[in-house]
Amino acid sequence: MTFPLIDGARAGMLTPSSNTALEPYTSAMFAPFGEEASAHFGRFRVVEISMSAASQTQFTEAPILEAAERLAECHPRLICWNGTSAAWLGLDKDRALCAAITGRTGIPASSTMLAFDRAFRGLGVKRLGLVTPYLGEIQTLIQANYAAQGIEVVAEARLEDKGNYSFATYPPAQVAAMIREVAKAKPDAIAVVCTNFRGAPVAEEIEAETGIPVLDSISVTAAHSLREMGLDPARVTGWGSVFRLFSEID
After folding, report:
1. 95 partner at 20 to 30 Å CA-CA among 89, 130, 145, 177?
2. Domain region containing 166
3. In sequence order, which residues have a C-beta less than 8 Å from that of residue 177 and are 6 or more positions away?
4. From the CB of residue 230, how many other CB atoms can be counted at a distance below 10 Å?
């Protein structure tokens, strides 16, 4: 008797080392696909989010490319930088990184912030609500980068925290309260920018309350990755409208 080999679509996720929310949430989002698709994680050191020199050197290409090479050994269909540093460093940073990953591994590459860009264009977002755990110095840079893209941040909430590990310790209810606060400004969409923050579990509930799309970083990355691998993100339910969005937009 012979048996068919299992060789589903694999997404290689480059992951900040101190993240604890990203992996379980992403795996749960991929669960409806069973053996058809899976997410695999490679870590590199990220332990602080600030504008300090030590923090900024965490996002140099060398350690990221090393992690990407290790992920390539599991033969993923896509390698995705599941992190939001380009929110304050600029989208060109992620474009260059993705080109370098593909050049090093031969595998298509993308990122969380490029996924956000695709979602914003798909929704026609001009007025944005912004929720993060970050410091004000980071938030100011994020708002400036969005302004350069023609997107006005009309309301924002942050926690003034710089310790990446600690971001996941804030409960979903606390993140939900922040989202509801910025929803009062009636933005076109609300972006929860951080891949170690617990916005994903509350997105669908708040969307039902407000009618405003809630785009959580982990969810956006998962939906975009599934689409890039040729799978229908709409098969993922219970995590908000972003999976339907990525099923429909170009």
Report:
1. 130
2. 118-217
3. none
4. 10
